[in-house]
Amino acid sequence: MKTLTLADARSVIAAAEAKAEEIGQPMNIAVVDAGGNLVAHVRMDGAWIGSVDISINKAWTSRAFDITTKHLGENSQPGQDFYGILASNNGKVMIFAGGIPLTRDGQVVGGVGVSGGIGEQDQAVAEAAAASL
């Protein structure tokens, strides 16, 4: 199974930090490997401590289901296919923007999770991070 290295994770985090600085929003940024295990996490100066756990769980969720947390959230509303999914996995599943599976050569090799701003900001930083890989 292909997975991420620490060097990959550092590169992804650096891209996320650059985007967060560009938009002026300090973030928590987490990267997990193909097995959903945390490889690296950064809490930028001034980022909310309450978002540490959220960023890690967004990264895990995006890898666990190989879907962005934004799309999972859209599909987990009442009447949708994944309604109730956030109650699974001991409440670890995140269903709002900021988690994106990381791919290499068309294969999921990990996930990135970003938390610290509004959903649009989290998503923008996560997208910049994912695009860097």
UniProtKB/TrEMBL annotation:
SUPFAM superfamilies for the chain: GlcG-like (SSF143744)
PANTHER family per UniProt: PROTEIN GLCG, SLR1406 PROTEIN
Listed name of the protein: Heme-binding protein
